[in-house]
């Protein structure tokens, strides 16, 4: 394995990925950096299914390259009071072009008057790897927390400003990057995947 292509164009996500996989002596590229442009329809019913769909789609673009591993993640926010919405639709919630500022405010408004003990939520991340052989491997990570009463912090992206962690009494957007990567759903799933990659 000389190269990892990650099926995302999200630069915030790539910063986290490169940080967590920094001890791997391989080139880590986003699909855009690898010159791959593919419209992928996420038709899965779970985070795992969508991660596999994305990884397979990118792997098809680099078939024949034996030293490449394709990784893809599907992640999202589950809010218990909202029947685990937005779930697998987290990125497309209220429309793909809707800002996360609007999405976050919408969730807070929907929880208006709901006490903290009923605001339980979690971030979920599934990461799929597709190897040149066609073999597929999937890991999963979660972090439990709750939806805060107002957004806070700038050290993150997406739903981070409204997702609070009890242990640290702050949102994940207020955590230092190193601690956030240690606790995060993506960090846990990536470290589990890293163990598989280094043991091969």
What name does the CATH topology carry? Answer: Maf protein
What percentage of the residues does DSSP assign to strands (E)?
A: 25-35%
Q: Compute the average pLDDT.
A: 93
Shape call: globular
Which range best describes the helical content: under 10%, 10-25%, 25-40%, 40-55%, 55-70% or over 70%?
25-40%
Classification by helices and strands: alpha+beta
- Determine the number of helices (DSSP H or I, runs of at least 4 residues): 5
Oligomeric category: single chain
Considering the chains and any ligands shown, give keywords for the structure.
single chain; 200 residues; alpha+beta; Maf protein; 5 helices
Structure explained in plain terms:
This protein has 200 residues and is α+β, with helices and mostly antiparallel strands. The protein has one domain: Maf protein (Alpha-Beta Complex), CATH 3.90.950. The protein is built from five helices and eight strands; from the N terminus they run E-H-E-H-E-E-H-E-E-E-E-H-H. Strands 1, 2, 3, 4, 5, 6, 7 and 8 form an eight-stranded mixed beta sheet that branches. A hairpin with a 5-residue loop joins strand 3 (68-79) and strand 4.
């Amino acid at each position: 394995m000389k190269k990892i292509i990650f099926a995302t164009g999200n630069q915030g996500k790539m910063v986290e990925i490169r940080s967590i996989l920094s001890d791997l002596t391989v080139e880590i590229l986003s699909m855009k950096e690898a010159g791959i442009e593919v419209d992928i329809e996420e038709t899965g019913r779970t985070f795992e299914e969508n991660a596999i769909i994305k990884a397979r789609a990118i792997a098809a673009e680099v078939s024949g390259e034996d030293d490449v591993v394709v990784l893809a993640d599907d992640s999202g926010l589950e809010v218990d009071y909202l029947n685990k919405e937005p779930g697998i639709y987290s990125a497309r919630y209220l429309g793909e072009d809707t800002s996360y500022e609007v999405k976050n405010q919408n969730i807070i408004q929907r929880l208006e008057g709901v006490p903290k003990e009923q605001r339980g939520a979690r971030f979920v991340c599934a990461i799929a790897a597709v190897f040149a052989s066609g073999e597929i491997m999937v890991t999963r990570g979660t972090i439990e927390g709750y939806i805060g009463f107002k957004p806070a912090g700038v050290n993150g992206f997406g739903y981070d400003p409204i997702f609070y962690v009890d242990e640290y009494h702050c949102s994940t957007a207020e955590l230092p990057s190193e601690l956030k990567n240690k606790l995060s759903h993506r960090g846990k799933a990536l470290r589990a995947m890293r163990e598989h990659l280094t043991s091969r």
